[in-house]
Write a structure and sequence with these properties.
Elements: H1 2-28, H2 36-45, H3 56-72, H4 94-110, H5 121-134, H6 145-160, H7 163-171, H8 173-184
Helix pairs in contact: 3-5, 3-7, 4-5, 4-8, 6-7
Length: 197
């Protein structure tokens, strides 16, 4: 009987302690900002491993393919991939933007009849497709209209250039490679901001 009274007193003591001490602490502790969990998830899903870009074999194939196509590029005034693609696009959406551009280049350029005109096209297309697959959960945050506007301008310019638009896109694969690396890895930024001829 004495042990039952001791147990009841200690239980009521714990209830009192929890209600008076712990509950106010829980109620006054700051909550994470709205959407903070989603933002960090989105940030993590918009990241690629740096090792994807350290494969010398695929880097050399991509750069060689781009160099070969630039020789045939008749339009030196326009650029599809450059800083203009980031106009009004927040930095946290740049990887999403580059993922979308890579998807467009693979589908609308590399997997068309040009794959028979240049060597390494299929290897580079597979590499880019594997990156976009790895980024499949990468979503934009905030407003989408600037991203879509810039993508439409790029596609429109490529269409306007006709067959040379595809040649230009292939000639800029080295830029796409660098921009993807800079936007989607935590690596020190390099290359993607430089202009290449």
């Amino acid at each position: 009987m004495a042990s039952l009274q001791t147990l009841t007193k200690s239980f009521s003591g714990w209830v009192f302690f929890c209600c008076c001490c712990c509950l106010p602490l829980l109620l006054t502790s700051p909550l994470p900002p709205k959407g903070a969990g989603l933002a960090s998830t989105t940030h993590q899903s918009c990241r690629l491993r740096k090792t994807n870009f350290q494969q010398h074999y695929i880097r050399n194939r991509t750069y060689t393919l781009a160099k070969m196509a630039r020789v045939s590029d008749e339009d030196t005034d326009n650029r599809l991939i450059g800083q203009q693609i980031y106009v009004n696009v927040k930095e946290n959406n740049r990887c999403y933007m580059m993922k979308r551009i890579a998807e467009i280049v693979v589908k609308d350029v590399l997997l068309t009849e040009v794959k028979h005109q240049y060597p390494y096209v299929e290897e580079v297309a597979q590499f880019l497709a594997s990156l976009t697959s790895e980024l499949s959960r990468c979503k934009f945050s905030g407003h989408r209209e600037h991203i879509e506007k810039n993508l439409e301008e790029m596609k429109s310019k490529m269409k306007q250039l006709g067959e040379n638009g595809k040649t230009k896109a292939i000639g800029e694969l080295d830029l796409l490679f660098d921009y993807l690396e800079n936007a989607c890895t935590d690596a020190p930024k390099k290359g993607g901001n430089k202009k290449k001829n």
